[in-house]
Amino acid sequence: MPLTEDQIAEIAELRSTSQPTMRATAPGMEQHLYTAHEVLDHGFVRVIDYMGDDAAIVQAARVSYGAGTRKSRDDSGLIRYLMRHWHSTPFEMCEIKLHVKLPVFVARQWIRHRTANVNEYSARYSILDREFYIPAPEHLAAQSTVNNQGRGEVLTGDEAARVLEFLKADAGRAYDHYEQMLSQEGQQGLARELARMNLPANIYTQWYWKVDLHNLFHFLRLRADEHAQYEIRVYAETICRIVADWVPAAYSAFEDYRLGGANLSGKALDCVRRMVKGEQVTQETSGMSKGEWREFEALLS
Question: Catalytic: which of 223, 233, 258, 273?
Answer without folding.
Answer: 223
